[in-house]
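dumping this here before i forget
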Amino acid sequence: MNIEVIINPTATTASEAAVIELYVAGVEQPFILDIDFTTILRGAANISELGKDFLLIAAVVYACDKAVDRNDSSISEDRWMRELSVSIPVAFPERWQATTETMEECVSFLTGDDWRFTFRAADRDIIQRRRRRRRVRRRLIPSLQADAVSLFSGGLDSFIGAIDWLSANPAGRLFLVGHHDRDVKGPKHDQVELSTILEGHFSGRFQSVHGRIGVTPAGDDINLRSRSFLFIALATFYAEQFGPMVPIIV
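structure:
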C-alpha cells in the first residue's frame, strides 16, 4: 500500500498550519491531517526544523495507522499485518533517510505491520505564515520553563508519574504533554481534569499543553498502537525548547 504525503497552503490566511494530505493508493479522496497547531505552538518558543520533521513523521504514522483498514482483505491477507510504504516531505531528507532502517523496525514492531519510509525535500513549511498588516506575536504559555517533560495521557500511569516527579523534585518545574484526537472521546477531558487536580497540590510547579492530532476522515482502525510514537514526538518537540539535557519521562 503506497501512501504519499503532500503539503499544500490553506485557502485561508487565518490558519497557522498548511494542509497536509495523505494520498492512499486506491482511495479517491485524500485523508487530511487534523493538527491543531495554534494550541501546539503555544508551548514552543523556539521551533526547530528537525523537531517539526519528527512531529510530522509521527503524525503521518498515526494518521496512516487509523486510515488504512487492516480488516480489508485486499490490504492485509491475514486481516492484521499491512504493508505500508510512505513518502514524507521533510526539511532534512538526508538525515531522516539515514534513520529509515531503525525507524521501520521500531514502527513495524509497534503496530504489527511492515513499514517502509522514504523522505524527500519539502517544498513548503508545515507552518504557514499568517498574512497580516501588523505582526501579531504568538501568545506563548507564560514563563515557559521546565526541568523535565512528561507524557500525560489522562491515564493513571502518567498521572502517578507526574506526582512522583513533582514530589521528588520540590524545586523542579514539569511540562506535561497531552495528546487528544477529535474522533476519540475522553482523553482531553481526562487530561484537563487531572491537571486541575495537580494544580491543587503543586500550584505553579507545572505547565501543560493538550495537542490535538488526528486524521479526517477518521478511518476504521481504532487500535491506536502508534499513539505512543506520536506522544514521544510531541514530547521531543517541547523538550528541546528547554535545553539539550532536559529528560523526557515516559
